[in-house]
Write a structure and sequence with these properties.
The protein has 5 helices and 5 strands. By secondary structure, the protein is an alpha+beta fold. It has one domain: 4'-phosphopantetheinyl transferase domain (Ribosomal Protein L22, Chain A), CATH 3.90.470.20. The strands form 2 sheets. The chain has a 3-stranded antiparallel sheet. A two-stranded antiparallel ribbon has the order 2-3. A hairpin with a 2-residue loop joins strand 4 (96-104) and strand 5 (107-115). Helix 1 packs across helix 4 (39-55).
């Protein structure tokens, strides 16, 4: 059963400008592994983090670092959920996450599905 769904779109150049203007932002938004990726990949991962929050109903206390996009089998993106996001997901009965990322034409998008 679907518990929640989230989608987010990010303009790659806008994220790049924000990271350049505020270098500490990278550490607040991305794990060390994520932070080393190219800008387009960062934008898709930021969109995924926002989509996770939407799938959970945007509860207070979530941090961007509570959701990490990792490479799973065959290079498929997977979500690693920790902290407050994991607590909320557990309370909602989320047992499985699905994520799809894409970037093209200066835009990045992520779809997230939370399943019980």
């Amino acid at each position: 059963m679907i518990v929640g769904i989230g989608v987010d779109v990010v303009e790659v150049a806008r994220l790049g400008a924000a990271l350049e203007r505020t270098p500490a932002l990278r550490r607040r938004l991305f794990t060390d592994a994520e932070g080393a990726l190219p800008l387009e990949s960062l934008a898709a991962r930021f969109a995924a983090k926002e989509a996770v929050a939407k799938a959970l109903g945007a509860p207070p206390g979530l941090r961007h670092l509570d959701a990490e996009v990792v490479r799973g089998g065959h290079g498929r993106p997977e979500l690693r959920i920790t902290g407050r996001a994991a607590e909320v997901a557990r309370d909602l009965g989320v047992r499985r996450w699905h994520v799809s990322l894409s970037h093209d034409g200066g835009m990045a998008v992520a779809y997230v599905l939370a399943e019980s």
